[in-house]
Every structure is written in structure tokens, then in C-alpha cells.
Amino acid sequence: MSNRESQQDFDPLIPEHFGSAHEDYARLRRECPVAHTDAWGGFWALMNYDDVKRAASDAKTYITSVQNVVPRVAFTGRRPPLHLDPPEHTPYRRALNPLLSMERSEALVETTRGFVTDLLDPMVTKGGGDICEEFASHLPVQVFGAWMKMPEDLLGTLHEAGQAFIMAVRSAQPDSMKVTSLRLYEMARDLIERRKANPMDPAIDPTSALLAARDAHGDPLPDEMILGTVRQVLVVGIVAPTVLMGSIAVHLSRDPELQSRLRADRSLVPAALEEFLRLYSPYRGFARTATCPVTLHGRTIPEGEPIALVYASANRDETVFPDGGEFIMDRPNIAEHLAFGRGPHNCPGVHLGRMQLRVALEELLARTSGFDLAGEPVVAPFPEIGAISVPLKFL
């Protein structure tokens, strides 16, 4: 089929409610696992688990350096490591990965618990509030700020600037994306200059680690690429925890039996969190571009066209996860979920993300005797999926 034909297998621009996109993705998995839409100039979408996992793992056939998210949001320069392909991306991952180990992430548990308590206290006092806007949008900023050794005077700016960029992306406004992204670049430049003036130990500080890193030839990383990496790190970890925490709150509000079970035995929280990660994977728009024509399920994706890896659909693929749309504690193959991606671009912050979500859920359960929805949740548009506003009433 010619790539110039109109191929509208689904429409990512139609209004959604909580769960409606998953209903459509179930249809596409059955009927059209390699789907196309004309939205945003046209792109393909892989819906099945095996296809998504294969594409995420094959960095030679499916590259990120052309377009890494649908719709396109990078208008202000390349931002490693996500915007680069191996082996060019490798020095940046090598510099950051040790600082994102499980040990380093778990060392921030008590700091994170303090952030969670401070954010939940006002909500508990007034008997509820929007768990996304008042809690989950702030927590990742504070956790990432602690991890990055962010100067106190930049933290408030980071939350404001990060949320402004995210809102511009959600509204698909290129001009606003550019303006808000450049503001984040200014913050990144400021942080780098501070580290150059007052160096920190690269073993504990991400910016200093990037400044100390060397490429395969033993040369320092280019200044503009270090700037792009710090800019990427400033915002990349803010979105997913906010959306996922909102979706978890919706699910537990609608399943009071599970909510009571977790509250009674919080040792179950880590296992529940893994199933929530599978069930409510917050991304559906991470993109690749094929370096050659690729034929899957009888359809050929031409070389050079954007392909969305719909992790949110793949993680509900019934051929891999029976009753994929249901919450099932202790799934035997839960470790196979793709919420953090696969391959060379798997999420480097996997341990930090799990830690903050676990602590947040533990404290939300510990500090309330119950909660319920106080209104309809607002859902995220492409490329995210899940809740971005969830009003709760604490019981």
C-alpha cells in the first residue's frame, strides 16, 4: 500500500475518557496491529507486544535520531541520550546509569518520604484534593531535584517551566513548545555553569558526571550535547509518575476492595505497583523510524516514516498477559511488561521511578482510611495515556 494513500485506521485526536483509548487499542490488536493515522502528518503505530518489544530492541532497524516521539516535540536541538542512536548515545548513558542504580535510588527513600508527607499534609487536612495537580506533579520535581543536587532557587522554576513545557506538548503547540523548551535550556545552562565554577564529585552529581565523561576516543563530550542532556533530564522524569499516580488513584477509587487489601497489608504494594505499571503504562507515543522498509502482518512501513511504539497497548496484549485489561496481583510473567521500554533506550530511571511511586502509594494508603473520586478524571492526550487530573475525597 502506498505511503501516499490516506490510511486512517485510528484517530488519536478524538476526545477520550478514562479507558476509552484502551478499548480502541484492543480492537486494533485484533484487527489492525500495524495501524496508520493521518494525524500530525501521518505516522504508524505498533500495537502488539512482540512487535513493540522487537522494535524497541532493534536499534539498527528502528532508530530514534530522526524522531523519538509522536507528535514531534524536539524543535530546539538534539538531547542525548534519547535523541541519539547507539553507539553515539552510549557515553551519556554510561555517565548517568551508575547514578540511577537501585542502591542510589533507594538511598533517597527517606528524603522522598519527607517530600510525600509535606505534599499530602494539606490534602489530608482539607479532606482531599487533586492528586495529580496538588501532589503527583510536584513529587517528581522534588525527587529529581534531590537526585540532581539541584540548587534550591531552581526547584520552583523547574516545576513551573517543566509544567509549561508539558502543557505545550499536550496542546500540540509548536511555538509554545519551543519557547518553554528554551526556558528549560536556560536552566540547564545555568546549572552547568554553576558546576563548572564549583565542581562536585562526579560519583554523586549527574551534571558533574557528564562534564567528566569521555567519549570512545577519550575526548570530553561536546558542550552542546551536555547541555541537551541536562535539558532532557530536567523534564523527562516529571511526566510519567504524575500520569501513573493519577491512574492508580482512579483504579483504587473504583476498586475499594483492592484499596482496603493494600491498606491492610502494605507489603503487597511493590507487587501491586508492577501490575499498575503494566496496566497503566503512561506512554503510547515513543517513536522510531525504520531505516528500511519493514513488513509486519502484511503491511509495509516505508523507510523514513515515524512509528509509534504503543507500550500502553503492548502491555495489555492478551496473547502475553491473559485478561490483559484486568488487574491481577502476582502475574507469573509480570517482569515481562514494557512500561520502562526495552533495548538501548530503556528508561534509565527505572529504579528511581519505582521507588518514588512505591513510597507515594504507601503513604497515601497509610495517611488515609479510604478515598474516592470527587469528580471525573481528566485524561492525557497523545503521547501520554492516563489521568492528569483526579479529584479525590478522603474518607
Could you explain how this protein is built, in words?
- The chain is 47% helix and 10% strand.
- It has 395 residues and is an alpha+beta fold.
- The model has no long low-confidence stretch (mean pLDDT 92).
- The protein is built from 16 helices and twelve strands.
Structural class: alpha+beta
Rg is 21 Å
Strand arrangement, largest sheet?
Answer: 1-2-8-5-3
Total strand segments: 12
Query: Would you tell me the overall average pLDDT?
Result: 92
How many helix segments? 16
Biggest sheet statistics: 5 strands, mixed
Q: DSSP strand (E) fraction?
A: 5-15%
Identify low-pLDDT runs.
none
Q: Helix fraction? A: 40-55%
